[in-house]
Amino acid sequence: MFSLTVRRHFMIAHSLPREVFGPAQALHGATFVAEVTFRRRALNQDSIVLDIGAAGGIIEDVLSGLNYKNLDEHPDFVGRLSTTEALAEYIAHAVAAKLKDDDDGRELAGIDVTLRENPDAWAAYTLDLSA
Asked: What is the domain class of 2-128 according to CATH?
């Protein structure tokens, strides 16, 4: 299995209104490093998983809908908790949707999203694709 990982930063505001989240129940900000890994069983005809520039552009496009936004007011998170894990899942599916009509995107075996809140804490989501 081959993989390509591209990283970008984004910042959000949100609240997690359940007792288990302690002080994070109140509105607060979070800065994430998003690492998106594209997995493929065989390289394409150019001996790559996916063009790095194209991958970065897709990630930036997805993150632009989240960056500097209050997720408590974001239409895609109405009635949902915007935990780090839920954000990772959201990003993986959004990236996959942007790649579904791309020749290389259709050959991907999976997309992994890791969101790092700091060097000591992160969450991830793995999306297996049908390729």
From this structure: alpha beta
